[in-house]
């Protein structure tokens, strides 16, 4: 998130947002680390406050219980020569280099100085900037699954005691398997689209459970949607779709013992018949996935894949042809699909791909016999 540096390791500090917690590190005869917060990669705003007085450090996230510690050694003075946000360039002076920050940052104050605002108005001696001011939905590392038989396999999802997953998706298909990982015994996890709604299906060893996402409209609308699915150590499951949240507690086993490959976008055709009964999917996901975060692991769905199947491409182009008011003739209904559109002519008297062919009704001939009068 931000880092300060000098030409000696004793004058280096950094603040990073990891998968579920914020950590504050001071590298001065060995780094001092403080951790606070949880589930911070939920696409919501969080407030972080860091303070130091001599050897005493304090880290507060979202105005809850502060985390405090004391530095070891005799050093109490930190001399900073530069402040960096989002990325670390002076890596040679750091013992542990964090990954680059992807997200939004505002109101950065350092010793009372609003450095982002000063950089924006040019009221600072030196400022190098390649980020953008203003709020914009971030779609990180998008990948397109062009057919319903396309999928990638990754190494096993690590979700034994707890889990925090985040991803974004965009599709026009109402059904499709997004994520699957089997496990030891009956353990498994599935995320799927069923009739335009998100389903989270899992088994921790005491029988399968299904949690349906709370969304007030169909999700196969060719728009980006944010999905967060988590499970804490008390078996509280959370499913958040955009701003709609649902939670559910489960009893019994608490650990998810997964094994084998983690499948993203679908599975092999012959595997669908072996899925548990609560899983509805019989085909893969067709559309775009982005910003995939698997318990703090940020995989590149293509380069990190153990193997790929079908047509998978970087970026997200979306449907090449979209429904317009005049796409279908004679009041036919346009049905948007990922690779184009089709026309439903069933409520018209026309046929053809665009409902432009007049349907000629078949005239049934009937003969009625006559009965002679007696």
Automatic annotation (TrEMBL):
UniProt xrefs under CDD domains: EGF_CA, LamG
Statement: the UniProt record of this protein carries the keyword Nucleotide-binding: no
Keyword field: Disulfide bond, EGF-like domain, Membrane, Transmembrane, Transmembrane helix
Residue stretches making up the Laminin G domain: 1-127, 141-316
Compartments (UniProt record): Membrane
UniProt main location, coarse: membrane
Superkingdom in the source lineage: Eukaryota
SMART domains linked: LamG (SM00282)
Keyword ATP-binding in annotation: no
Residue ranges occupied by any EGF-like domain in the UniProt entry: 319-356
One of the record's GO cellular component terms: membrane
Descriptive protein name: Laminin G domain-containing protein
Organism: Scyliorhinus torazame (Cloudy catshark)
């Amino acid at each position: 998130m931000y880092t300060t540096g000098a030409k000696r390791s004793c004058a280096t500090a950094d603040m990073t947002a990891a998968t579920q917690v914020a950590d504050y590190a001071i590298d001065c005869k060995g780094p001092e680390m403080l951790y606070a917060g949880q589930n911070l990669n939920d696409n919501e705003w969080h407030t972080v406050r860091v303070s130091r007085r001599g050897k005493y450090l304090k880290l507060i996230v979202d105005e809850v219980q502060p985390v405090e510690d004391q530095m070891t050694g005799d050093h109490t003075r930190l001399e900073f020569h530069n402040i960096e946000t989002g990325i670390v360039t002076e890596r040679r002076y750091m013992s542990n280099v964090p990954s680059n920050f992807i997200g939004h940052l505002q109101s950065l104050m350092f010793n009372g100085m609003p450095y982002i605002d000063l950089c924006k108005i040019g009221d600072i001696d030196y400022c190098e900037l390649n980020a953008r001011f203003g709020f914009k939905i971030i779609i990180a590392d998008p990948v397109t699954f062009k057919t319903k038989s396309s999928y990638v396999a990754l190494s096993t999802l690590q979700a034994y005691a707890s889990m925090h997953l985040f991803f974004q998706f965009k599709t026009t298909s109402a059904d499709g398997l997004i994520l699957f990982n089997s496990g030891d015994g009956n353990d498994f996890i599935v995320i799927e689209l069923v009739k335009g709604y998100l389903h989270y299906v899992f088994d921790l060893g005491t029988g399968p459970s299904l949690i349906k996402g709370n969304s007030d409209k169909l999700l196969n609308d060719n728009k980006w949607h944010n999905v967060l699915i988590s499970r804490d150590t008390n078996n509280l499951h959370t499913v958040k779709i955009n701003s709609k949240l649902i939670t559910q507690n489960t009893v019994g086993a608490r650990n998810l013992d997964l094994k084998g490959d983690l499948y993203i976008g679908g599975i092999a055709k012959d595997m669908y018949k072996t899925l548990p009964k609560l899983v509805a999917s019989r085909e893969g996901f067709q559309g775009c996935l982005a910003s995939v975060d698997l318990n703090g692991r940020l995989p590149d769905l293509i380069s990190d894949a153990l193997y790929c199947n079908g047509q998978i491409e970087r970026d997200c182009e979306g449907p090449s042809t979209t429904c317009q008011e005049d796409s279908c003739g004679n009041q036919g209904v346009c049905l948007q699909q990922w690779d184009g559109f089709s026309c439903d002519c069933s409520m018209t008297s026309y046929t053809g791909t665009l409902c432009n062919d007049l349907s000629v009704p078949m005239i049934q001939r009937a003969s009625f016999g006559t009965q002679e009068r007696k």
